[in-house]
Amino acid sequence: MQPFVYTAAPARIVFGAGSSAGAAEEIHRLGLSRALVLSTPQQKSDAEALAARLGRLAAGVFSDAAMHTPVEVTKNAVEAYRVAGADCVVALGGGSTTGLGKAIALRTDAAQIVIPTTYAGSEVTPILGQTENGVKTTMRGPEILPEVVIYDAELTLGLPVDISMTSGLNAMAHAAEALYAQDRNPIASLMAAEGLRAMIGALPGLKAEPRDIEARETALYGAWLCGSVLGAVGMSLHHKLCHTLGGSLDLPHAETHAVLLPHTIAYVEQAVPDLLAPLAALVGGRAGAGLYDFAARLGAPASLAALGVRSDDLDPMAELATANPYWCPRPIEKTAIRDLLQRAFEGTRPE
After folding, report:
1. What is the tens place of the pLDDT at every residue in 64-73?
2. N or C: lower Cβ tally within 10 Å for the chain?
3. pLDDT-based confidence at 247, cuts 50/70/90?
4. Given a cut of 90, is residue 83 above it in pLDDT?
5. What confidence tens digit (pLDDT) does each residue in 17-28 have?
């Protein structure tokens, strides 16, 4: 066995249907008393309802969270946090809202309670991605990790099927890359394989019956595991390409992961098929092609073109993605990455 280092995240995880009713108790447990509730504009009414339930513990609502955590939005949120006299944030929503909470915490040392309503997984990572002037950068540090995460499957019952599918594939991307991470370890690999098993088992059931609470709980369980490994080990080619395209072209985050995942995994699989064998066994056949077929059965978007990417975007994106690449078990070659992007643009099945 190769030597390894495993660092467990110190976050408190509260899991169970109806568990979001205990948000006030978690604020008290942290010794705090004024929470700024965060959401996107689309979930403003849910955030206001949560603030009403928190009563005097709610310092206000900030509902302008946006994809890719724009720095300008964060500046406004930090100002709102200070004006409200808040001492913590409660982020209700998906990755955009979680990212805003992390960005506020980075600048104010605010404690964070996250109540995820999607399967993004970022709530259990010490990683923050921010966008400024069209460029997305990421950073990592213990001060970014939320203190408490409340997983309440009841809050995901209304998540639209299409978003459920792409959000689940987004979570799976974290676990898939963890299997071949440079700093992989046995614990993270076990969590990754179990997270993939849970998501692959849950998503088809959710597509057929979106209000199946057991399937929703299994998907949240899988999202927790997939997100946890994203925080435990380094990511690689897939996340680099998603950050590059998403931040530069302002693409929808989960959908970008869903389209690129079969192609990035197929690219890496040529170098380390043994490390991706657990995923291949779950999807059948080769990992990349199996993921493509699985995503197709879920009805997920299959091409970058469907997300609004133009053919003349591909050359500059390949250039940008290979200028400062993440570590990858297969050498990063600009021509090969350009070919990968072409296949993803067209939506062709990986060989």
Report:
1. 999 999 999 9
2. N
3. confident
4. yes
5. 999 999 999 999
- Tokens representing 136 are 């997305």
Taking residue 16's Cβ as centre, other Cβ atoms within 10 Å add up to 14
Domains (range + CATH), the chain: 12-156 (3.40.50.1970), 161-346 (1.20.1090.10)
